[in-house]
TrEMBL record:
Transmembrane segments annotated in the record for this chain: 6-25, 63-80, 111-129
Subcellular location, principal: membrane
Protein name per the record: MAPEG family protein
InterPro entries, sorted: MAPEG-like_dom_sf, Membr-assoc_MAPEG
Record carries keyword DNA-binding: no
Origin superkingdom: Bacteria
Keyword field: Membrane, Transmembrane, Transmembrane helix
Amino acid sequence: MPVELTILAWSMVLLLVHIFAAAHVKTKQYGAKWNMGARDERLPPLAPLAGRLSRAEANFKETLPIAIVALIGVVLAGKASEWTAMGGWIWLGARIVYLPLYAAGIPVVRTLFFLASLVGILITLWPLLGL
């Protein structure tokens, strides 16, 4: 199996971590009844940690489709290589580190890891651009 698909599978695990981390702290704040309900009621703003985890989840979901296209695309196009695998691992590794940095409220270093993840995506995507 191409390593790019393994990276993609691990990224789905990371997506679940994002979803459940954010949901866990929201449930701690708003209660189990809120979590199991229709969530129609107006709620007070999220506490700082819950807000950061929710924003980190949204940020991951914004860039995940690009990574999916890049990782599957190079496999389908027969352009997978050591470079595309390295780009995928850079992307995934940076995204793994990004989550606790965001949760801890560490601003500048978090952004550097976000930028590293974009570099990883671009390395993987490059062979598909036909340049």
